[in-house]
């Protein structure tokens, strides 16, 4: 990619699998279950891999999601979160809402160290994050607390 981010082939394959699992999972289950399953798959798929920079993981996820029909900001966030957690990063998935003349819209994005890394392709200032403790603050450290 022109911005210095690298797309990794192994991560591309794992990311594609995670994308399909996340997309199908969100149709039949809930966010908590889907993220638990995708994080487990990501840990298996990246076992033995060299730790990747968050920007490289983000670039790979975005490249994969662009090629998968029906992907959404939420599935992209789930996939990015799962891979970043597998590499040991402290990650937050944020979900925000925007209200304008055309209706109410939701958007999901991922932050690492408080900086948006995935889903920042829109003006995040236009979205009001859902409150702490709900889906708007789905932190990766909860995996560590639950032993997942």
Record keyword descriptors for this entry:
148 residues, alpha+beta, 5 helices, 19% strand, disordered C terminus, 46% helix
Protein architecture, described:
Residues 139-148 have a biased composition (Basic and acidic residues). Residues 50-130 form the Microcin J25-processing protein McjB C-terminal domain. By secondary structure, the chain is an alpha+beta fold. Helix content is 46%, strand content 19%. It has five helices and five strands, in the order ααααβββββα. Strands 1, 2, 3, 4 and 5 form a five-stranded antiparallel beta sheet that branches. Helix 1 (9-28) runs antiparallel to helix 2, helix 1 crosses helix 3 and helix 1 (9-28) packs across helix 4. The chain is globular, with a radius of gyration of 14 Å.
Would you spell out the secondary-structure blueprint of this structure?
Elements: H1 9-28, H2 31-45, H3 54-66, H4 73-86, E1 91-100, E2 103-112, E3 115-118, E4 128-129, E5 138-139, H5 141-146
Antiparallel strand pairs: 1-2, 1-4, 1-5, 2-3
Helix pairs in contact: 1-2, 1-3, 1-4, 2-4, 3-4
Instruction: Say how many strands there are.
Output: 5
Share of helix, binned: 40-55%
Unreliable residue stretches: 133-148
Gyration radius over CA: 14 Å
**Could you say which structural class the secondary elements and strand pairing correspond to?**
alpha+beta
């Amino acid at each position: 990619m022109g911005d210095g981010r690298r797309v990794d082939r192994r991560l591309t394959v794992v990311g594609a699998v995670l994308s399909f699992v996340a997309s199908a999972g969100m149709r039949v289950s809930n966010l908590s279950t889907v993220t638990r399953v995708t994080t487990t798959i990501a840990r298996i798929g990246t076992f033995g891999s060299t730790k990747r920079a968050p920007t490289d993981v983000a670039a790979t996820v975005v490249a994969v999601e662009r090629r998968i029909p029906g992907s959404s900001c939420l599935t992209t966030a789930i996939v990015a979160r799962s891979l970043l957690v597998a590499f040991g990063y402290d990650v937050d998935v944020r979900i925000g809402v925007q209200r304008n003349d055309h209706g109410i819209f939701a958007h999901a994005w991922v932050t690492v160290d408080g900086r948006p890394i995935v889903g920042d392709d829109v003006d995040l200032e236009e979205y009001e994050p859902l409150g702490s403790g709900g889906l708007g603050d789905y932190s990766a450290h909860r995996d560590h607390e639950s032993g997942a």
